[in-house]
User: Which sequence fits this backbone?
């Protein structure tokens, strides 16, 4: 029978939750790297025992940790993220030019085929790649060097590259998202990039349909249908059927279309999940009810999933990297909250239960389905 | 030998239990001591000062002989008591954050 491993990054360390395939009993290990912010932990699809973790603090900067045994032991690897060439400037909050400065790694995306190749999305926004298991890192400068770079600006959480999606059908194609610049795609393995924001409409921008400047919160894809992308934007839930060339809104009957996470059912490419959040200044669920919304139609028609989730006085947030799915049948869905709970559903969202209740504020959740 | 006191998180990272000792060739300065620490414990590279600018991280402080040396030039000589090993060079995480 398969096993499931949930990798949780929090404000004060990493935790690993493990269960057998029924997903009824969970064992928690951690905190790993106690006291450090763990923005993201992710396993290699090519070798599930190879994990990478982004570890940082405001005191001592950035570290990358690597495990070769599924998180039992870790070793620090390379932490030198140096922008290629002259870093240049982006827009600061007040519209003035501000030099690019490395702050932290938000997201680690291991290659689909090589455990030693891993991508890092960083703040200030850029993408780096390591081909030696995280020992050394090289920027893919074509992204930041795209002519729009000087017009990118930070969102409230900083100017972060937080989403990296690899196309399983095309090794040269990668999608990324930046707050607040928008979504970009490369078709040549990172040499050149193009903005893919046509159809996005952000009223917070002076030009709402601008080429760049959109605050994209998350992009999700089903590996069987890599041309179809789903996006949770600052406001609006969006869908593209042409690999990002254009987008259309699928918010439909959601109670609010603000939110951070979005994910796709592992076995049903048209079943998607979001967690609506009240507004951009009120980062908690509407009416104090924590509800996951599921669409089985690829958007527009949504149903609230509430069984097992708090339906009163709940004012947590679910951050952009804090939802994931396993690939079992039925599909497991997992998300973590800023209140330190990790909720799991072993029936594709029909019912939920906390598998950890009192962790530090959760920054990220990833899931591995193990043989 | 120069005695260096590391903050708790960096002791964990470097897998040392307490004060460490490093050998410094030439003048004993912040820069030469930090260079020696990073040579002995490569995992600490980038945690005390920025990889590129070599500037002290804002929330890292350097104390010795009851003085705050954080704002001294990295090439200024450290006190004789540090150079002789009578007093440790203290690397401290500033009181900040939560």
Assistant:
């Amino acid at each position: 029978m398969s096993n499931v491993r949930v990798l949780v990054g929090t404000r004060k360390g990493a935790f690993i939750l493990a269960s057998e395939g029924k997903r009824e009993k969970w064992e928690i290990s951690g905190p790993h790297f106690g006291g450090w912010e763990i923005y993201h932990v992710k396993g290699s699809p090519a070798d599930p025992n190879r994990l990478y973790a982004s570890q940082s603090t405001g005191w001592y900067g950035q570290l990358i940790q690597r495990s070769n045994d599924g998180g039992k032991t870790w070793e620090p690897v390379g932490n030198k993220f140096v922008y290629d060439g002259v870093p240049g400037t982006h827009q600061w909050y007040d519209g003035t030019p501000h030099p690019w400065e490395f702050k932290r790694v938000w997201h680690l995306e291991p290659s689909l085929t090589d455990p030693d190749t891993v991508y890092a999305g960083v703040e200030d926004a850029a993408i780096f790649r390591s081909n030696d298991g995280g020992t050394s890192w090289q920027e893919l400068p074509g992204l930041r060097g795209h002519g729009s770079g000087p017009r990118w600006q930070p969102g409230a959480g900083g100017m972060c590259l937080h989403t990296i999606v690899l196309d399983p059908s095309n090794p040269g194609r990668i999608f990324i998202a930046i707050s607040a610049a928008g979504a970009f795609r490369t078709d040549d393995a990172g040499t050149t990039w193009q903005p893919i924001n046509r159809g996005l409409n952000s009223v917070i921008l002076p030009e709402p349909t601008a080429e760049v400047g959109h605050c994209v919160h998350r992009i999700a894809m089903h590996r069987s249908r890599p041309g179809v992308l789903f996006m949770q934007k600052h406001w609006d839930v969006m869908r593209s059927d042409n690999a990002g060339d254009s987008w259309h809104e699928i918010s439909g009957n959601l109670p609010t279309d603000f939110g951070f996470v979005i994910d796709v059912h592992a076995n049903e490419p048209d079943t998607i999940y979001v967690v609506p959040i009240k507004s951009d200044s009120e980062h908690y669920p509407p009416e104090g009810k924590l509800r996951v919304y599921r669409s089985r139609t690829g958007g527009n028609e949504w149903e609230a999933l509430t069984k097992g989730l708090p339906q009163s006085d709940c004012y947590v947030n679910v951050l952009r990297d804090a939802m994931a799915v396993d690939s079992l049948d039925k599909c497991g869905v997992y998300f973590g909250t800023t209140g330190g709970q990790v909720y799991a559903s072993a029936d594709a969202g029909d019912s939920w239960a906390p598998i950890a209740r009192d962790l530090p504020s959760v920054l990220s959740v990833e899931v591995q389905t193990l043989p | 030998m120069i005695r260096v006191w590391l903050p708790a998180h960096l002791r964990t990272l470097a897998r040392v239990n307490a004060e460490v000792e490093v050998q410094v060739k030439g003048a004993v300065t912040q820069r030469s001591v930090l260079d020696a620490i990073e040579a002995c414990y490569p995992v600490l590279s980038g945690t005390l000062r920025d990889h590129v600018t070599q500037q002290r991280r804002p929330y890292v402080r350097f104390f010795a002989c009851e003085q705050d040396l954080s704002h001294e030039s990295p090439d200024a000589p450290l006190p004789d008591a540090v150079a002789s090993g009578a007093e440790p060079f203290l690397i401290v995480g500033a009181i900040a954050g939560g």
Notes: The longest helix of chain A spans residues 141-144. DSSP finds one helix and 30 strands in chain A. The interface with chain B takes residues 35-36, 57-63, 76, 79-82, 102 of chain A (CB under 8 Å). The mean pLDDT of chain A is 97.
